[in-house]
Amino acid sequence: MTDLKVTGLRVARQRCEVLHGVDAEVRAGGWLAVIGPNGAGKSTLLKAVAGLLPYTGEVTVDGVRLRDLPARELARTLAYTPQNPVVPPQMPVREYVLLGRTPYLGYLALPGRRDRAVADQVIERLDLTALATRDVGTLSGGERQRVVLARALAQQAPVLLLDEPTTALDLGHQQQVLELVDRLRRDDGLTVVTTLHDLGVAAQYAERMLLLVNGEAAASGTAAEVLTPAGIAAHYNAHVEVTTGPDGRPRVHLIRPAQVRAEQAEVPTGGSARHDADA
Ligand SMILES: Nc1ncnc2c1ncn2[C@@H]1O[C@H](COP(=O)(O)OP(=O)(O)OP(=O)(O)O)[C@@H](O)[C@H]1O
Ligand SMILES: [Mg+2]
Protein backbone atom coordinates (compact mmCIF):
# COMPACT_ATOMS: atom_id res chain seq x y z
CA MET A 1 0.00 0.00 0.00
CA THR A 2 1.59 3.27 -1.06
CA ASP A 3 -0.80 6.20 -0.91
CA LEU A 4 0.75 9.51 -1.85
CA LYS A 5 -0.71 12.60 -0.27
CA VAL A 6 0.24 16.21 -0.90
CA THR A 7 -1.23 18.86 1.37
CA GLY A 8 -0.96 22.62 1.08
CA LEU A 9 2.20 22.47 -1.02
CA ARG A 10 3.85 25.85 -1.49
CA VAL A 11 7.06 26.23 -3.46
CA ALA A 12 9.05 29.35 -4.29
CA ARG A 13 11.56 29.57 -7.10
CA GLN A 14 14.05 32.41 -6.89
CA ARG A 15 11.96 33.91 -4.08
CA CYS A 16 8.83 33.96 -6.21
CA GLU A 17 6.09 31.60 -5.07
CA VAL A 18 5.00 29.40 -7.99
CA LEU A 19 2.87 26.82 -6.15
CA HIS A 20 0.32 28.36 -3.84
CA GLY A 21 -0.95 25.57 -1.63
CA VAL A 22 -1.71 22.56 -3.79
CA ASP A 23 -3.46 19.44 -2.52
CA ALA A 24 -3.36 16.09 -4.31
CA GLU A 25 -3.93 12.49 -3.39
CA VAL A 26 -3.13 9.32 -5.29
CA ARG A 27 -4.28 6.02 -3.94
CA ALA A 28 -1.96 3.03 -3.98
CA GLY A 29 -1.90 1.66 -7.52
CA GLY A 30 -3.48 4.84 -8.87
CA TRP A 31 -2.35 7.06 -11.73
CA LEU A 32 -2.65 10.82 -11.43
CA ALA A 33 -1.99 12.99 -14.48
CA VAL A 34 -0.99 16.54 -13.66
CA ILE A 35 -1.97 18.74 -16.56
CA GLY A 36 -1.98 22.46 -17.21
CA PRO A 37 -0.54 25.12 -19.47
CA ASN A 38 3.17 25.93 -19.73
CA GLY A 39 4.54 27.46 -16.57
CA ALA A 40 1.59 26.32 -14.43
CA GLY A 41 3.90 24.57 -11.95
CA LYS A 42 3.61 20.91 -12.97
CA SER A 43 7.36 20.22 -12.98
CA THR A 44 7.78 22.23 -9.80
CA LEU A 45 5.17 20.03 -8.11
CA LEU A 46 6.92 16.81 -9.13
CA LYS A 47 10.36 18.12 -8.18
CA ALA A 48 9.17 19.22 -4.76
CA VAL A 49 7.47 15.87 -4.13
CA ALA A 50 10.73 14.18 -5.19
CA GLY A 51 12.52 16.19 -2.49
CA LEU A 52 14.54 18.27 -4.94
CA LEU A 53 13.06 21.66 -4.03
CA PRO A 54 12.33 23.15 -0.62
CA TYR A 55 8.63 23.47 0.15
CA THR A 56 6.16 24.13 2.89
CA GLY A 57 3.19 21.84 3.36
CA GLU A 58 3.22 18.07 3.66
CA VAL A 59 4.08 15.22 1.34
CA THR A 60 3.43 11.79 2.78
CA VAL A 61 3.58 8.23 1.55
CA ASP A 62 1.43 5.92 3.62
CA GLY A 63 1.32 8.61 6.26
CA VAL A 64 5.13 8.92 6.48
CA ARG A 65 6.45 12.42 5.84
CA LEU A 66 8.91 12.23 2.96
CA ARG A 67 11.00 15.07 4.35
CA ASP A 68 11.77 12.89 7.37
CA LEU A 69 13.22 10.06 5.28
CA PRO A 70 16.98 9.68 4.80
CA ALA A 71 18.04 9.97 1.13
CA ARG A 72 18.51 6.24 0.69
CA GLU A 73 15.10 5.45 2.10
CA LEU A 74 13.53 8.18 -0.04
CA ALA A 75 15.12 6.66 -3.16
CA ARG A 76 13.64 3.28 -2.27
CA THR A 77 10.24 4.89 -1.89
CA LEU A 78 10.09 7.15 -4.90
CA ALA A 79 11.65 7.28 -8.37
CA TYR A 80 11.56 10.45 -10.44
CA THR A 81 12.40 11.33 -14.03
CA PRO A 82 12.84 15.03 -14.86
CA GLN A 83 11.42 16.78 -17.91
CA ASN A 84 14.93 17.71 -19.08
CA PRO A 85 17.30 15.08 -17.73
CA VAL A 86 21.03 15.67 -17.67
CA VAL A 87 22.94 12.47 -18.31
CA PRO A 88 26.65 11.67 -18.00
CA PRO A 89 27.50 11.55 -21.73
CA GLN A 90 30.32 9.04 -21.51
CA MET A 91 28.60 6.42 -19.43
CA PRO A 92 27.41 3.25 -21.16
CA VAL A 93 23.64 2.69 -21.08
CA ARG A 94 23.83 -0.44 -18.90
CA GLU A 95 25.99 1.31 -16.28
CA TYR A 96 23.66 4.29 -16.30
CA VAL A 97 20.59 2.12 -15.74
CA LEU A 98 22.45 0.35 -12.92
CA LEU A 99 22.66 3.69 -11.08
CA GLY A 100 19.00 3.04 -10.32
CA ARG A 101 20.16 0.25 -8.01
CA THR A 102 22.32 2.58 -5.86
CA PRO A 103 19.81 2.76 -2.96
CA TYR A 104 20.13 -1.02 -2.55
CA LEU A 105 23.94 -1.24 -2.54
CA GLY A 106 26.02 -1.43 0.59
CA TYR A 107 28.61 1.23 1.37
CA LEU A 108 31.19 1.16 -1.46
CA ALA A 109 29.67 -2.08 -2.73
CA LEU A 110 29.40 -2.88 -6.41
CA PRO A 111 26.13 -3.96 -8.01
CA GLY A 112 25.51 -7.66 -7.55
CA ARG A 113 23.98 -10.30 -9.79
CA ARG A 114 20.46 -9.40 -8.80
CA ASP A 115 21.05 -5.70 -9.51
CA ARG A 116 22.37 -6.53 -12.98
CA ALA A 117 19.41 -8.83 -13.63
CA VAL A 118 16.94 -6.11 -12.68
CA ALA A 119 18.73 -3.58 -14.91
CA ASP A 120 18.89 -5.98 -17.85
CA GLN A 121 15.22 -6.84 -17.52
CA VAL A 122 14.22 -3.18 -17.61
CA ILE A 123 16.58 -2.57 -20.53
CA GLU A 124 14.89 -5.35 -22.44
CA ARG A 125 11.36 -4.18 -21.62
CA LEU A 126 12.18 -0.75 -22.95
CA ASP A 127 13.72 -1.98 -26.20
CA LEU A 128 17.19 -0.87 -25.22
CA THR A 129 19.15 -4.12 -25.42
CA ALA A 130 20.81 -3.18 -28.70
CA LEU A 131 21.94 0.10 -27.15
CA ALA A 132 23.17 -1.31 -23.82
CA THR A 133 26.87 -0.79 -24.52
CA ARG A 134 26.51 2.60 -26.22
CA ASP A 135 27.44 5.77 -24.33
CA VAL A 136 24.37 7.67 -23.18
CA GLY A 137 25.67 10.84 -24.85
CA THR A 138 25.48 9.22 -28.29
CA LEU A 139 21.76 8.40 -28.14
CA SER A 140 18.89 10.13 -29.91
CA GLY A 141 16.50 12.19 -27.78
CA GLY A 142 13.88 9.45 -27.61
CA GLU A 143 16.44 6.73 -26.88
CA ARG A 144 17.86 8.85 -24.08
CA GLN A 145 14.39 9.42 -22.65
CA ARG A 146 13.79 5.66 -22.49
CA VAL A 147 17.17 5.13 -20.82
CA VAL A 148 16.31 7.69 -18.14
CA LEU A 149 13.00 5.92 -17.57
CA ALA A 150 14.85 2.59 -17.40
CA ARG A 151 17.04 3.92 -14.61
CA ALA A 152 13.95 5.03 -12.70
CA LEU A 153 12.26 1.65 -13.15
CA ALA A 154 15.42 -0.18 -12.07
CA GLN A 155 15.00 1.67 -8.77
CA GLN A 156 11.89 -0.48 -8.11
CA ALA A 157 10.33 2.19 -5.95
CA PRO A 158 6.59 1.90 -5.30
CA VAL A 159 5.96 5.55 -6.27
CA LEU A 160 6.88 6.71 -9.75
CA LEU A 161 6.96 10.41 -10.69
CA LEU A 162 7.42 10.98 -14.43
CA ASP A 163 7.68 14.49 -15.82
CA GLU A 164 6.62 14.45 -19.49
CA PRO A 165 7.96 10.92 -20.04
CA THR A 166 6.88 10.65 -23.66
CA THR A 167 7.67 14.04 -25.24
CA ALA A 168 10.60 12.78 -27.32
CA LEU A 169 9.13 9.39 -28.18
CA ASP A 170 7.67 8.22 -31.48
CA LEU A 171 4.09 6.92 -31.36
CA GLY A 172 5.06 3.28 -30.96
CA HIS A 173 7.46 3.95 -28.12
CA GLN A 174 4.98 6.32 -26.43
CA GLN A 175 2.47 3.52 -26.33
CA GLN A 176 5.07 0.99 -25.23
CA VAL A 177 6.26 3.16 -22.34
CA LEU A 178 2.77 4.08 -21.14
CA GLU A 179 1.53 0.50 -21.40
CA LEU A 180 4.57 -0.69 -19.46
CA VAL A 181 3.96 1.86 -16.70
CA ASP A 182 0.29 0.88 -16.63
CA ARG A 183 1.18 -2.80 -16.38
CA LEU A 184 3.53 -2.09 -13.47
CA ARG A 185 0.75 -0.12 -11.83
CA ARG A 186 -1.77 -2.91 -12.22
CA ASP A 187 0.51 -5.88 -11.54
CA ASP A 188 2.84 -4.48 -8.89
CA GLY A 189 0.59 -1.76 -7.45
CA LEU A 190 2.90 1.12 -8.38
CA THR A 191 1.52 4.56 -7.61
CA VAL A 192 2.10 6.79 -10.63
CA VAL A 193 2.13 10.55 -11.11
CA THR A 194 2.89 11.90 -14.56
CA THR A 195 2.72 15.25 -16.21
CA LEU A 196 1.50 14.82 -19.77
CA HIS A 197 0.86 17.53 -22.32
CA ASP A 198 -1.19 15.28 -24.58
CA LEU A 199 -4.57 15.46 -22.87
CA GLY A 200 -6.08 12.65 -24.95
CA VAL A 201 -3.26 10.32 -23.98
CA ALA A 202 -3.45 11.42 -20.35
CA ALA A 203 -7.19 10.67 -20.36
CA GLN A 204 -6.62 7.14 -21.57
CA TYR A 205 -4.15 6.18 -18.88
CA ALA A 206 -4.78 8.28 -15.80
CA GLU A 207 -7.51 7.48 -13.32
CA ARG A 208 -7.53 10.99 -11.96
CA MET A 209 -6.40 14.36 -13.20
CA LEU A 210 -5.22 17.52 -11.55
CA LEU A 211 -5.41 20.66 -13.66
CA LEU A 212 -2.86 23.20 -12.43
CA VAL A 213 -3.17 26.81 -13.52
CA ASN A 214 -0.88 29.54 -12.19
CA GLY A 215 0.29 27.36 -9.36
CA GLU A 216 -3.17 26.44 -8.13
CA ALA A 217 -5.50 23.50 -8.67
CA ALA A 218 -8.14 24.72 -11.11
CA ALA A 219 -9.87 21.34 -11.29
CA SER A 220 -9.40 17.77 -10.20
CA GLY A 221 -11.32 14.57 -10.70
CA THR A 222 -11.79 11.99 -13.42
CA ALA A 223 -10.69 12.79 -16.97
CA ALA A 224 -14.33 13.33 -17.96
CA GLU A 225 -14.80 15.81 -15.14
CA VAL A 226 -11.64 17.78 -15.85
CA LEU A 227 -11.45 17.73 -19.64
CA THR A 228 -14.36 19.91 -20.71
CA PRO A 229 -14.15 22.07 -23.86
CA ALA A 230 -15.02 25.15 -21.82
CA GLY A 231 -12.34 24.43 -19.22
CA ILE A 232 -9.71 23.75 -21.88
CA ALA A 233 -10.66 26.92 -23.75
CA ALA A 234 -10.49 28.96 -20.56
CA HIS A 235 -7.20 27.63 -19.24
CA TYR A 236 -5.26 26.74 -22.41
CA ASN A 237 -6.82 29.23 -24.80
CA ALA A 238 -7.25 26.33 -27.22
CA HIS A 239 -10.14 25.18 -29.40
CA VAL A 240 -10.89 21.53 -28.87
CA GLU A 241 -13.65 19.08 -29.43
CA VAL A 242 -14.15 16.48 -26.72
CA THR A 243 -15.82 13.22 -27.63
CA THR A 244 -16.28 10.05 -25.63
CA GLY A 245 -14.34 6.98 -26.70
CA PRO A 246 -15.68 3.42 -26.59
CA ASP A 247 -13.95 3.01 -23.23
CA GLY A 248 -16.05 5.88 -21.87
CA ARG A 249 -13.02 8.14 -21.54
CA PRO A 250 -12.79 11.51 -23.23
CA ARG A 251 -10.93 11.97 -26.50
CA VAL A 252 -9.56 15.43 -27.05
CA HIS A 253 -9.24 16.73 -30.61
CA LEU A 254 -7.44 19.96 -31.38
CA ILE A 255 -9.48 21.74 -34.04
CA ARG A 256 -8.95 25.04 -35.76
CA PRO A 257 -11.35 27.80 -34.70
CA ALA A 258 -14.60 27.83 -36.73
CA GLN A 259 -13.83 31.30 -38.07
CA VAL A 260 -10.50 30.16 -39.57
CA ARG A 261 -12.14 27.08 -41.10
CA ALA A 262 -14.83 29.25 -42.68
CA GLU A 263 -12.22 31.60 -44.15
CA GLN A 264 -10.27 28.68 -45.57
CA ALA A 265 -13.36 27.21 -47.18
CA GLU A 266 -13.67 30.40 -49.22
CA VAL A 267 -10.13 30.19 -50.60
CA PRO A 268 -9.85 27.98 -53.72
CA THR A 269 -7.00 25.60 -53.07
CA GLY A 270 -6.00 24.83 -56.71
CA GLY A 271 -3.42 21.99 -57.04
CA SER A 272 -3.30 18.62 -55.36
CA ALA A 273 -0.62 16.81 -53.47
CA ARG A 274 1.77 14.93 -55.71
CA HIS A 275 3.98 12.21 -54.45
CA ASP A 276 5.19 10.93 -57.80
CA ALA A 277 8.25 12.19 -59.61
CA ASP A 278 6.72 14.43 -62.24
CA ALA A 279 9.52 14.66 -64.72
N1 LIG B 1 14.81 27.48 -11.85
C1 LIG B 1 13.82 28.37 -11.88
N2 LIG B 1 14.01 29.63 -11.45
C2 LIG B 1 13.01 30.54 -11.46
N3 LIG B 1 11.76 30.28 -11.90
C3 LIG B 1 11.54 29.05 -12.33
C4 LIG B 1 12.53 28.02 -12.35
N4 LIG B 1 11.99 26.92 -12.86
C5 LIG B 1 10.72 27.23 -13.14
N5 LIG B 1 10.44 28.50 -12.83
C6 LIG B 1 9.15 29.18 -13.00
O1 LIG B 1 8.19 28.51 -12.20
C7 LIG B 1 6.94 28.44 -12.88
C8 LIG B 1 6.51 27.00 -12.99
O2 LIG B 1 7.44 26.30 -13.80
P1 LIG B 1 7.29 24.75 -14.12
O3 LIG B 1 8.55 24.32 -14.78
O4 LIG B 1 6.90 24.06 -12.87
O5 LIG B 1 6.07 24.77 -15.14
P2 LIG B 1 5.40 23.57 -15.94
O6 LIG B 1 3.95 23.58 -15.59
O7 LIG B 1 6.15 22.33 -15.72
O8 LIG B 1 5.56 24.08 -17.44
P3 LIG B 1 5.81 23.26 -18.81
O9 LIG B 1 4.48 22.85 -19.30
O10 LIG B 1 6.40 24.32 -19.70
O11 LIG B 1 6.75 22.13 -18.53
C9 LIG B 1 7.15 29.12 -14.23
O12 LIG B 1 6.71 30.44 -14.14
C10 LIG B 1 8.65 29.08 -14.41
O13 LIG B 1 9.10 30.17 -15.21
MG1 LIG C 1 7.27 21.13 -16.92
Overall, the morphology is globular
Query: What is the CATH class designation?
Result: Alpha Beta
Model regions low in confidence, pLDDT < 50 over at least 5 residues: none
CATH superfamily: P-loop containing nucleotide triphosphate hydrolases
Helical stretch count?
A: 10
Quick check: average pLDDT?
A: 92
**Strand numbers in spatial order across the main sheet:** 6-7-8-3-9-10
Helix-strand pattern, N to C? Answer: EEEHEEHEHHHEHEHEEHHEEH
Oligomer: single chain
The helix content, as a percent range, equals 25-40%
Strand content: 25-35%
Number of strands: 12
Q: Would you give the CATH topology?
A: Rossmann fold
Q: Which molecules are bound besides the chains? A: adenosine-5'-triphosphate, magnesium ion
Task: Please explain how this structure is put together.
This protein has 279 residues and is of the alpha/beta class. It has a single domain (4-266), classed as P-loop containing nucleotide triphosphate hydrolases (Rossmann fold, 3-Layer(aba) Sandwich), CATH 3.40.50. It is 34% helix and 25% strand. It is built from ten helices and twelve strands. The chain has a six-stranded mixed sheet with strand order 6-7-8-3-9-10, sandwiched between helices. Strands 2-1-4-5 form a four-stranded antiparallel sheet, with helices on one face. Strand 4 and strand 5 form a beta hairpin. The N and C termini lie far apart (67 Å). The model has no long low-confidence stretch (mean pLDDT 92). Magnesium ion (MG) is lined by residues 42-43, 83, 163, 195.
